[in-house]
Amino acid sequence: MAIKSRNKVEPTFNSSSMSDLVFLLLIFFMLTSTLVAPNAIKLMLPSSNSKTMAKQTVTVYINDQYQYFVNETPADDQQLAGLINANIGEDNQATVVLRSDKSVPVQYVVNVIDAVNEINTATNSNHKVILATSPKK
Fold this sequence. Notes:
Elements: H1 16-35, E1 47-48, E2 58-62, E3 68-70, E4 73-75, H2 80-88, E5 95-100, H3 106-123, E6 128-131, E7 134-135
Helix pairs in contact: 2-3
């Protein structure tokens, strides 16, 4: 008496569902990678060979229309020191990272440094200003 198994295991593999899954994952990662923006304000930073990194507390942007932004909040010359001080908080040794477009005149950079120096004098603190640059090619 020959007993035959009714459930046969086929050695073939159907890869159509696997390719659909890989395709969907590829689309997901492509879409999410375009949404990540390290700098919210587009700037052409000056070039430099230095690789100094610091823990940034506040970021000040100056775009090519000479507009100030403190952590993406628009500001003018009079509001600059107040906004920086508000974003620093109680930290006595904060670092202010200045991201300035390379076409901006030096006077606008000096205005930010003066604002931080005003805060240092008024609060008897030791805040630093670092100019952000892009790597040389």
